[in-house]
Amino acid sequence: PRLSFVARPAAKYALSLHSKLAKASIRPIGNGGPKSPLTDSRVTMIRRRTLLLLATAEALVAPVTRRTTTKLHAIDAVVLEQCAGYAAIPTCFVGTGAFLLGREPEGTKLEGALLGNNGEVLTNDPVEEGEVDIYRDTALRYAGYANEVGEAFAPLTPGWCVPFSYAVAITYVIADTIDKTKKVLDGTKYAGDNINTCAAIEGVDALIWQLAASVALPGYTIHQLVAIVVALLDASGVDQSGVISALPTACGLAMIPFIVKPLDELAEVAMDVTFRKVSAPYLESCEV
What we know:
Blueprint: H1 7-23, E1 26-28, E2 35-37, H2 40-61, H3 77-103, H4 146-152, H5 161-186, H6 195-236, H7 247-273, H8 275-286
Antiparallel strand pairs: 1-2
Helix pairs in contact: 1-2, 3-6, 3-7, 4-5, 4-6, 4-7, 5-6, 6-7, 6-8
């Protein structure tokens, strides 16, 4: 090891004394005179001095011992910054949706909603009142969350599983779009020469809403959450075999029930202030 300017002379001097003590059991007295053994007091003094200097040199040369951190403490600012980047946009989406959801009690008109000439709320929903919408009011609605489940299982499944889950969700979206379009053409809510235009508007409305609420927003949110958990596990150095390997999947699945309604509401309000505001005059011209 590299010695400091203080430790190097001390070590040399200590080694010199130690060497002399080992070699010299007698010392000369006078010029060519007889040799006599070293006195016990002289040997004891040299030995003590040698041991003291060796201990001093060893203390100066020894590396500084620092408290070893645990695996979890090894997560540094870079990892935390990375996780914060992963969480920023999903947190904004879910937080905004939760705020919008909590702003109005369930069953009341949303402030700023689109109103028709008679004050009715324009919802762009072609389903007749009292009719059950199998794509949104039954268990079939969960098909739209297939991609969220796929994102949650991404760390445990082969690479093709996530694209397949998106294919299932998009198939559901297309089926709902076709259903809403047909209900405009076959229903009694709209009539007139522009009914085909209104049917196309309702279909596009359903397509955009489903892509946002069922595929894009929740899929991205779950993907980022799983990435955060994986990054933290990698940085902590925890053995990811066994139960730990399923932790990202468990966190992703557990998050789904908490993000569905806020993200649905976010998509609903976004449609109200964009596409539905533009399409409202056309729908009014088709209403019976």
